[in-house]
Amino acid sequence: MSIQAGDKIPSVTLKVMGEKGPQDITTDDIFAGKKVVLFAVPGAFTPGCTLTHLPGYVVNADKIKAKGVDTIACLSVNDAFVMGAWGKSQNAEELLMLADGNCELTKALDLVMDGSGFGMGLRSRRYAMIVDNGVVSQLALEPTGAVDVSSAENILALL
């Protein structure tokens, strides 16, 4: 069963692109003692993610943070190099671009999408969640092919 409101985020190590290359970051580092908006996409540089999902969070970052959010994080089952390059190409400096390259957090959340039919392997389902001190308070899980309930505008309204 996938993660739900009221559940704690599992302890997993992810990667971010640092000045000297990929660096480890744990879910405890990200969520402990903070209010975080985490949204996940099936793939960096893919059309729906690049044209619709990520830009909404970039444009609304200040409004989201004004609602008491410490961190806005974007997660994808891609490597840190890809997530770093995608973030730069989309002017997403205000966002934490998280690489779940081994699909560990995505599997632990039970939010895996099988994109094998598209040559993409295992990926994350599209979702957004509000996490308070490591506990999910809101989860907006998209049906396949949609970018609606997990949009920045919808999450902003839930804050």
UniProtKB/TrEMBL annotation:
Please provide, in alphabetical order, the Gene Ontology terms of the cellular component aspect for this entry.
Answer: cytoplasm
An example GO biological process term is: hydrogen peroxide catabolic process
Q: Which residues form the Thioredoxin domain?
A: 3-159
- Origin, by domain of life? Bacteria
GO molecular function annotations of the record: thioredoxin peroxidase activity
Alphabetical list of Gene3D superfamilies matching this protein: Glutaredoxin
Entry annotation: catalytic residues: C49
Q: What is the protein's known function?
A: Thiol-specific peroxidase that catalyzes the reduction of hydrogen peroxide and organic hydroperoxides to water and alcohols, respectively. Plays a role in cell protection against oxidative stress by detoxifying peroxides.
| PANTHER family from the UniProt entry | PEROXIREDOXIN (PTHR10430), PEROXIREDOXIN-5, MITOCHONDRIAL (PTHR10430:SF16)
Of which family is this protein a member? Answer: Belongs to the peroxiredoxin family. Prx5 subfamily.
Per its record, how is this protein called by name? Glutathione-dependent peroxiredoxin
Q: Which organism is it from?
A: Zhongshania aliphaticivorans
Q: What is the lineage of its organism?
A: Bacteria, Pseudomonadati, Pseudomonadota, Gammaproteobacteria, Cellvibrionales
Protein's gene: garA_2
